[in-house]
Amino acid sequence: MEDEQAEGLPVQDEPDSAGEPAAAESAAGLPPKEARTWGMLCHLGALAGIIVPFGNIIGPLIFWLVKRNEFAFVDEQGKNALNFQISLTIYGLISAVLCLILIGFVLLIGLLIFGLVMTIMAAVKASDGQSFRYPLTIPLFH
Question: What is the pLDDT of residues 33-59, one digit of tens each?
Answer without folding.
Answer: 999 999 999 999 999 988 999 999 999
